[in-house]
Amino acid sequence: QVQLVESGGGLVQPGGSLRLSCAASGSIFSINVMGWYRQAPGKQRELVAAINTAGSTNYADSVKGRFTISRDNAKNTVYLQMNSLNSEDTAVYYCNFKELNPPSYRNYWGQGTQVTVSS
Question: Is the preceding peptide bond at 103 cis, omega within 30 degrees of 0?
Answer without folding.
Answer: yes
